[in-house]
Write a structure and sequence with these properties.
15 helices, 0% strand, globular
Length: 374
């Protein structure tokens, strides 16, 4: 693939997003859509949606994998690696600093006043991205009904992966009912990959192996990550539950992927080398999955049957993001102050369509801090 964007430009963009991307995968994808689709027109809304839908079907942190897809689209495998590393790096460094301080002082710093205003601003960013993505995803009434059904299913507690696959299969069934003479091929290859980094001690290899398994199997939110690590580490006496809860908390209130929790946990287990082993282990499968998946997406789109599956999955992905946004709103919009921050942020994004997400996040944090003093 010929390079269409310089690696320096890719690095700077995703370093910036790594610093300001608060709020979890839905918010990260909203910020990414604003940067690569609306501001830079690196790809169409339709192709961005295809990437979102496909990424939701593989394990790992969805927003981080979307970043890798965007890098791969613009500069081949080098872009994939540069984009992924640059997006992950700020979260890892910030989390490592928290991990060191926690090990030294036994407690986390107080950041609630700033997070108070960031959360409603992030909800506004997600909503502003859902409008254009939703318009592109809802190609017909049938897809609209599938999307609505997915929202209802997720609100009733159906796991998001089950909802995504179910919606995709329903889309194929609808296609089959309209085109009964066509066959329904199924192509779902799975690659199992094991790697061991050189020059690590037996203890760090064990940490690497634990987090490699988690990164290769993890679907879902930070709460699912908590359950995985509880079973792998706390149940085996390798970490206390209090340490794990503090690690997940750090992953939640720092920018970038929540899987930077691994950096914190690895540091508590074996210092800086343990942090490095855990970080490489949990993120490595995502690089491999995206490298395998990205070239397949155009082929999926060329098949009419698999294209119907992808269309339905895209609608389901939008529905899942909407449900996440509703759940975040229920937790974050707790009083008139947070509601005011959300309304002002959304209004600014709708009026100034090319407004940088940095300003929205920074403005929400500052306003939240000021209003918390009232």
């Amino acid at each position: 693939m010929a390079e269409k964007t310089s690696l320096q430009e890719i690095a700077l963009l995703f370093l910036k997003l790594g610093v300001i991307a608060f709020g979890g995968p839905a918010a990260h994808i909203a910020m990414l859509e604003n940067e690569v689709v609306r501001k830079r027109t690196w790809m169409s809304h339709e192709h961005f949606l295809d990437l979102v839908g496909a990424t939701n079907l593989i394990p790992g942190p969805n927003s981080t994998e979307m970043v890798m897809h965007c890098g791969r689209e613009r500069a081949g495998w080098k872009g994939l690696v540069v984009a992924g590393v640059c997006f992950i790096l700020p979260a890892v460094l910030i989390t490592a600093a928290f991990a060191w301080a926690y090990q030294q002082y036994g407690q986390l710093p107080q950041v609630e006043a700033f997070v108070y205003g960031i959360k409603p601003a992030v909800i506004a960013i997600i909503l502003s991205a859902l409008v254009p993505l939703g318009k592109k995803a809802l190609k017909n009434a049938e897809l609209g009904m599938l999307g609505a059904a997915t929202v209802v299913a997720c609100l009733l507690g159906v796991h998001e992966i089950v909802a995504l696959f179910g919606c995709g299969l329903a889309g194929v069934l609808l296609f089959w009912l309209k085109n009964r003479d066509r066959a329904l091929p199924g192509i779902f290859p799975v690659a199992l990959l094991q790697v061991a980094p050189p020059l690590l001690s037996a203890g760090n290899l064990k940490i690497f192996g634990i987090f490699l398994k988690v990164g290769a199997l993890l679907y879902g939110s930070g709460y699912v990550l908590f359950a995985f690590l509880d079973a792998e580490l706390v149940a085996r006496g390798l970490l206390t539950r209090e340490q794990l809860m503090d690690a997940v908390a750090v992953g939640q209130f720092t920018p970038g992927p929540v899987l930077s929790t691994a950096t914190f946990v690895g540091w508590q287990m074996n210092g800086a080398w343990g942090a490095l082993a855990a970080t490489v282990g949990i993120f490595l499968p995502s690089f491999l999955f995206v490298a395998l998946l990205n070239p397949l997406i155009p082929r999926l789109r060329r098949s009419k049957v698999l294209s119907a599956f992808l269309d339905a999955v895209n609608v389901a992905a939008i529905a899942v993001i909407l449900v996440v946004c509703l759940q975040m709103g229920r937790a974050a919009l707790t009083d008139w102050k947070t509601l005011l921050i959300a309304i002002l942020s959304l209004g600014a994004l709708l009026v100034f369509k090319k407004m940088n997400s940095v300003l929205v996040v920074a403005g929400g944090a500052a306003l939240g801090y000021l209003l918390a003093l009232v």
